[in-house]
Design brief:
Blueprint lengths: L9 H17 L3 H20 L5 H10 L3 H15 L4 H6 L2 E7 L18 E6 L4 E3 H19 L2
Antiparallel strand pairs: 1-2, 2-3
Length: 153
């Protein structure tokens, strides 16, 4: 029995991640960022559990998971899926908080509903650095594409 309609491999999830980023490039919304973060981190499980993935890729995955951008996806995905981070996940979180704004002068010019504009999502890490959600998403997709390419997935 399969509970993954339309998805059979890590490559399928990588392609979904690219589609999620395309939607964010059209317009950033909390919904789209949520989908991207969950998919971006879920690719780890697909790489780890798919028997067709080379053992070398599975070994490299442990190091790949230590990247800050992927950890942000983990923190956001876990927090959104479970309402908040539990103590165990909070202890390993790299993300301090997020902010979402909309209105005049926020987001990209000409994007979003007239008079409302595009949502701008900012992620603040524990080290005080802040990242734009769209830029972070583009980096995560690029990192995954490089990982897949390097490991022949």
């Amino acid at each position: 029995m399969s509970l993954t309609p339309g998805f059979a491999s890590p490559r399928d999830l990588l392609e979904k991640l690219a589609r999620d980023l395309d939607l964010m490039r059209t317009e950033v919304t909390a919904d789209r960022f949520f989908n991207f973060a969950v998919t971006g981190y879920s690719v780890c499980d697909w790489v780890d559990h798919d028997p067709s993935v080379p053992a070398s890729a599975k070994s490299a995955l442990m190091q790949f998971r230590t990247g800050t951008d992927l950890k942000v996806c983990r923190d956001i995905a876990n927090s959104l899926k479970h309402f908040s981070l539990d103590a165990k996940n909070q202890a390993k979180a790299v993300t301090n908080n997020t902010a979402s704004e909309q209105g005049f002068g926020v987001g990209r010019y000409g994007v979003g509903a007239y008079g409302i504009g595009e949502e701008e999502i900012t992620i603040v890490l524990n080290d005080g650095t802040s990242h734009d959600a769209l830029a972070l998403a583009a980096r995560v997709l690029q990192q995954w594409e490089s990982f897949f390419s390097a490991h022949g997935i």
